[in-house]
């Protein structure tokens, strides 16, 4: 439990560091949904740094493994059809809501943006409610 | 070239943070939302730590006149809370609760070679494309009065 806690805090600090770096060098928010939207056709004019950021993020697990980092746990406990529906909703929602956990939840709240505070409270509450309905009302185990 | 290289390195730092913190693992994320079940507090520690570093770092960085590689900081200009923000955030939250992936968690998970991450990201990109087309066709259909 302590090791997991330590990794959470360390991992969170690295996420924060990446947000500070991208602002310091590129003057950009680390908002993954926004970065992604810019590499979808029609691509935005500045797609280069976006694509590079995404490639770096995708390469991270392989690099961690090569450097002998801790084993990365992964478990997707829901059926594939749910992944598809969830993915569609996440795409539509982050586009309409101008951001996701990284953009609103980290970068926006760090700037004390009222929009980001409201968005984060809303998507967190919606996710908690959704999991409650699924796990305790519709499919109680 | 410098811009591309630094963006790649920054992405690497981000992805490493996501993977180390367990945020690329849907089971951990869903465990945080399951407040009435076996609650997993990990996500709260990740966010608190990320927020602390970002808030302090932004205070230092945003005092400068401009970023190193650009002429200005690209900060969101919109200040007003509108219906689209609220509805979008709610839709995102429902999708997150169903699948257990958010965009920032799913991208590094692609590198784990997990098929569920690839299916999620493909669906999410489709969702973004659908929403963008819908907004553009709505904007085109609406007469410009303002």
UniProtKB/TrEMBL annotation, chain A:
It is a multi-pass membrane protein. One of its GO terms (cellular component) is plasma membrane. The keyword Glycoprotein does not apply. Belongs to the TsuA/YedE (TC 9.B.102) family. The chain crosses the membrane at residues 47-67, 79-97, 117-138. It comes from Devosia limi DSM 17137. It comes from the Bacteria. Signal peptide: none annotated. It holds the Pfam family Sulf_transp. This is Membrane protein. It is found in: Cell inner membrane. Keywords: Cell inner membrane, Cell membrane, Membrane, Transmembrane, Transmembrane helix, Transport.
From TrEMBL, chain B:
Keywords: Membrane, Transmembrane, Transmembrane helix. The chain crosses the membrane at residues 42-62, 83-110, 116-134. InterPro entries: DUF6691 (IPR046513). It comes from the Bacteria. This is Permease.
């Amino acid at each position: 439990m302590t090791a997991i806690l330590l990794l959470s805090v360390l991992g969170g600090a690295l996420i924060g560091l990446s947000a500070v770096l991208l602002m310091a060098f590129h003057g950009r928010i680390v908002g993954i949904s926004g970065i992604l939207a810019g590499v979808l056709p029609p691509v935005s004019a500045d797609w280069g740094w976006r694509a590079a950021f995404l490639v770096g993020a995708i390469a991270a697990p392989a690099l961690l493994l090569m450097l002998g980092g801790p084993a990365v746990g992964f478990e997707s406990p829901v059926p594939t059809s749910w992944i598809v529906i969830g993915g569609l909703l996440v795409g539509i929602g982050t586009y309409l809501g101008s951001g996701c956990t990284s953009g609103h939840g980290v970068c926006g709240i760090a700037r004390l943006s009222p929009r980001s505070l409201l968005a984060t409270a809303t998507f967190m509450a919606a996710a908690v409610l959704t999991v409650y309905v699924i796990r305790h009302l519709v499919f109680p185990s | 070239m410098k811009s591309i290289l630094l963006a790649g390195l920054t992405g690497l730092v981000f992805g490493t943070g996501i993977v180390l913190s367990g945020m690329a693992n849907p089971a951990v994320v869903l465990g945080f939302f399951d407040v009435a079940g076996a609650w997993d507090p990990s996500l709260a520690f990740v966010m608190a730590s990320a927020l602390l570093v970002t808030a302090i770092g932004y205070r230092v960085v945003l005092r400068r006149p401009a970023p190193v590689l650009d002429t200005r900081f690209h900060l969101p200009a919109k200040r007003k809370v509108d219906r689209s923000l609220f509805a979008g955030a709610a839709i995102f939250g429902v999708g997150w609760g169903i699948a257990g992936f958010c965009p920032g968690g799913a991208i590094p998970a692609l590198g784990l070679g997990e098929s569920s991450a690839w299916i999620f990201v493909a669906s999410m990109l489709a969702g973004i494309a659908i929403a963008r087309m819908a907004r553009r066709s709505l904007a085109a259909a609406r007469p410009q009065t303002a």
